[in-house]
Amino acid sequence: MKRSRLVPALLTLAVALGATPAMADGASGSGAPKKKNSDDSTSTDSGDKSGFKDGVADGSAKYAAGDYAGAVAAFQKAVEAAPKNPLGHYFLGEAQLKAGNLTEAEAAWNRASLAATEKDAALRAKILFCLADLKERQKKWDDARAAWQVYLDWGTKYPEAKAYAGSGTSRQGMIDAAQKQDKAYEVVRQRIAATKNGGVFTDLSKQPPAPATPPAAAPAH
Fold first, then answer.
1. 210 lies in a domain?
2. The pTM of the whole model exceeds 0.70
3. Domain tally for the chain?
4. Which of 86-90, 188-192, 212-216 has the highest mean pLDDT?
5. 11-43 exposure pattern, b = at least 16 Cβ within 10 A, e = fewer
6. Which terminus of the chain faces fewer neighbouring Cβ atoms within 10 Å, N or C?
7. Would you say 108 and 89 are in contact if contact means Cβ atoms under 8 Å apart?
8. pLDDT averaged over the chain?
């Protein structure tokens, strides 16, 4: 599936930087997840502020160095220190993704989404963006389309989140195209299967003919 956007790794990195939605939508960026002071969190329970801050700082440094397993461990400590702070779960998801752990990344972002409130509108928009993008990576087209709709709905309800409607809508359009392409490929696969069985199947609008039944052998005299 072709996408008119940054390659997934760079897009994810841009989001991890704490970039604005405009950067996540197509501008370039590089570096590790930026640390946010735990005192700025709008979480209802910031937990152990010192432990959270140290975990995020350590995780950011390891992320920048390419030690994604180490970043995962550090961000997990930040989450343990302040489990209701959505930022820790968000960073943990970024590190899990870079480490190749897609299931764990999704779980972290789901927790971040639950922890983020309307007071964290911009952060939750980024989280929803990550979740929708992840569904695309997994080629779960129906889930991805639904996830982009959640992103769009959030942006409509909370304009201060500065979600980009054009981005979500265009991604839904690309998903529709991918699904259409998959259906076309399925017809081709049927054609290939038919020819392997000795049949001749050239009309893609029709089902392949059933294999001919060989004539019965003449009775022996």
1. no
2. no
3. 1
4. 86-90
5. bbbbbbbbbebebbbeeebeebbebbebeebeb
6. C
7. yes
8. 77
Give the containing element (helix H, strand E) for 108. Answer: helix 102-115
**131: how many CB neighbours lie within 10 A of its CB?**
22
pLDDT at 21: 30
- On whether residue 189 sits in a domain, the answer given is no
Has residue 138 been placed in a domain? yes
Task: Return the axis-axis angle of helices 165-196 and 121-137, rounded to nearest 10°.
Answer: 10
Instruction: Give the separation between CA 56 and CA 106, rounded to whole angstroms.
Output: 19
Q: Which two tokens stand for residue 42?
A: 């709008």
Question: Which band of pLDDT confidence, cut at 50, 70 and 90, is reported for residue 3?
Answer: very low
User: Residue 214 falls within a domain, yes or no?
Assistant: no
Give the range of the structural domain holding residue 177, as residue numbers without chain letter.
8-181
8 A C-beta contact, residue 109 and residue 90: yes
Write the CATH number for 153.
1.25.40.10
